[in-house]
Design brief:
Blueprint lengths: L1 H4 L1 H10 L3 H24 L5 H25 L4 H23 L9 H20 L6 H48 L2
Length: 185
C-alpha cells in the first residue's frame, strides 16, 4: 500500500517540480521495495493468497503510471512505452478473463518477474538520461540494456502463459464440475 501511496509523490516530483532525478530515485526505490517485500514475505513465511494478488496488481499500477508519466515527460521513446504497456494490458486482461471464466489462479513466473525488474531499473534510468545529471550518458546505456532485456523476458513470459492459462482454465472448470456433481443428490 505504501508503494501505491507514493505514486502521487512520484508524479509531483516529475511534473510539479520537474525533478527527473528525484522522480527516478523514488521510482527506483519503489521498484526495489517490491523485491524486498517479496523476499521478506517468503523468508518470514508470510506469503498469502491476498499478497499474491495485491503484489502483482501494485506492480502493474506502479509500472503503468510510471511508464505513461515518463512517456508524457518525453524521457522514453513512445514506441517502447507502448510495447511495454501493450504487454501489461494483454496479460492483465487475460488474468481477468481467466478469473471470470473460472480458471484456477496462475502463479507469476520468474521470467515475468525478471522482465518487471528490468523495467523497474530501465525506466528510472531513462529519466536520469534526460536530466542534467553528470552521469546521464552511462544511465542511457544501462537503461537501454535493461529495457531490451525486459522486453525479451516480458514477452517470452506472455507467450509461455498461454499453455498455463489453458491448463488453469481446464482445471478450474473440471473442479467446478466436480463440486457441482458432489452437491447434487
Amino acid at each position: 500500500m505504501v508503494r501505491l501511496l507514493c505514486v502521487p509523490v512520484f508524479l509531483w516530483l516529475l511534473f510539479g517540480r520537474g525533478d527527473r532525478v528525484g522522480a527516478a530515485f523514488l521510482l527506483g526505490a519503489l521498484g526495489a521495495t517490491d523485491w524486498v517485500d517479496g523476499f521478506l514475505a517468503r523468508r518470514l513465511h508470510q506469503v498469502s493468497t491476498l499478497g499474491k494478488i495485491l503484489d502483482p496488481t501494485a506492480d502493474r499500477i506502479l509500472l503503468g503510471v510510471g511508464i505513461v508519466a515518463i512517456m508524457i515527460d518525453g524521457s522514453v521513446p513512445l514506441w517502447l512505452g507502448i510495447v511495454v504497456l501493450a504487454r501489461e494490458v494483454l496479460v492483465s486482461g487475460a488474468v481477468l478473463a481467466l478469473a471470470a471464466a473460472g480458471a484456477r489462479r496462475i502463479d507469476v513466473q520468474w521470467v515475468g518477474k525478471a522482465g518487471t525488474l528490468c523495467f523497474m531499473v530501465a525506466f528510472p534510468l531513462f529519466l536520469v538520461a534526460h536530466s542534467t545529471a553528470g552521469w546521464k550518458d552511462p544511465a542511457a546505456v544501462v537503461a537501454w540494456g535493461f529495457a531490451i532485456a525486459g522486453l525479451g523476458f516480458a514477452w517470452y513470459a506472455a507467450v509461455t502463459y498461454v499453455p498455463l492459462a489453458r491448463r488453469a482454465l481446464a482445471e478450474g472448470r473440471a473442479g467446478r464440475a466436480a463440486s457441482v456433481a458432489v452437491t447434487r443428490p
